[in-house]
Amino acid sequence: MWIVKLGGSIAHDAVLLRWLHMLAEFGGGRVAVVPGGGAFADQVRIAQQQWGFDELAAHNMAVLGMAQTAQMLHALEPRLALAAADEEIRQAIHTGRVALWVPYAALRDAPDTLTTWDVTSDSLALWLARRLNAERVLVVKACRVDPALGLADLAAAGVVDRRFPQWAQDAAFPVDVVQVDALDAVRLALVRGEWPPPALPPLDLSRAWHTERTPAPPRLPPR
Question: What pTM was computed for the model?
């Protein structure tokens, strides 16, 4: 199973539809999509700055923002199967569909390692991948991803969240941060079942993605 996280920033670009249609067409039986919080999560940040409520509430509100994005993505591409529980995701994949995560499992009753702005939908994609023993994680970003930068540098630049490098380092699966213009590369990878895909033009190989691989065993964060 591949976890594909579609960043909330893509929600303002027409390329979002191309990504959704491509995943529905070529990702059936293989892909689970993690939605970003996008503008919904941005509103949580604004409200927290105004009212000063705690990180637990902000986390749960942002997770519900991701759930709103999931509903929007499903409306745009109904072939994606809404799935909240882990077993629902596995069932969607088993029946040859693309699962679209509704992240109610990430809601919290008390503070823990998830309930901080250091953890966004980027790291929640890694969190879900561990729960599902995923084969790979792809994080799709609207901004340019410099292949010369490590994940720590990408976090410092705000491309991924601050917890992401640590959790990616502990992962047993490859973690790739890709640009939105890597759509054709991802499509080819899904068709051929390998990443990075072979026989791509050198320009795409130099610009399209950043990859880190680590052999460390998976380690779930406290729940």
Answer: 0.88
